[in-house]
Amino acid sequence: MKQLKHYTIIGILFVLITGVLAHFLYQWSGNNRIVGYFTPINESIWEHMKLLFFPMLLYAVFIILKFRENYPCIATSLYFGIIAGTLLIPVFYYAYTYLLGKDFFVLDIVTFILSILIAFWSSYQLTLHCKLQDYCWLLRILVCVLFLCFIIFTDYPPNLEIFKDPTIVPPLGYNTCSVI
Question: Does the pLDDT of residue 57 top 80, yes or no?
Fold first, then answer.
């Protein structure tokens, strides 16, 4: 159990550091499309969910291979943590911006950190208690669906608020209302 706790803390730091670096990787790569599938290509909330999803998925592969014999529920627990942490990013963001009326850079960082901590804490607890093992296939499928959505929506984002880049301002006179 001590070793699992140790690797959980390493995972938190790994996702935090790689997530921060991934924020800039697309630009550093000269806007390489392949890099953009795994890192944010703009400032939308959807694209920022990649900052937790892909680093935690990468770390999960490592941890599952290392601990699957000692902790048979670790894969299921990590699948849950990946999904929960990724989805908490827009939940926290939209909750605080609704309450405060605008976004704040510091709260965006807090949102990212808190989502990582909850993702790993829940994974750790569920690994120890094995409460979701019956849902392993479902959680694995959901992670795969989310993975595919990140890839597809990088090139073909739906016209929903979560996919909109807030740094792009429509030209003057542009009607943002749609006719039904």
Answer: yes
